[in-house]
What we know:
Blueprint: H1 3-19, E1 46-49, E2 55-58, H2 61-74, E3 77-79, E4 89-97, E5 100-106, H3 113-119, E6 128-131
Antiparallel strand pairs: 1-2, 1-3, 2-5, 4-5, 4-6
Amino acid sequence: MRILPSLLAGAACALLTFSCGSDDDGGFTDGNADPQRAECETRTVLSCTGSNGVCHEFYSDEAADAIYSTCVQLGDIISENPCPERYSECCIHIEGSYDYPEGICLTDDDPDLAEFRSRCESTEDRPEKWCGG
């Protein structure tokens, strides 16, 4: 019977070690666990630049997989990197694609920038985050 307490102690230790792991979100790469956590620094899983010059960023593997075929059909340029650096003005739609965050990015010289930025205002019904200069 002395084996049972040591087994229980070992199991408890293993559970505590697993559940008390690092809470550091610095390596956060995927919005699936909690889409509300997407921030301007969140690593992009896939981006897609359309013929209209607008670049979309996806932070979730599931959303990226689902949107990939749409990007191909539209003839968009697809990348497993963020939008190019010139796309510095972005609006993250927290519930954008398939209920996962989607960043929509323009260049800072886009004539529609002022209107785009004014539309990127978070409301209770439409949570959004502005990322840009």
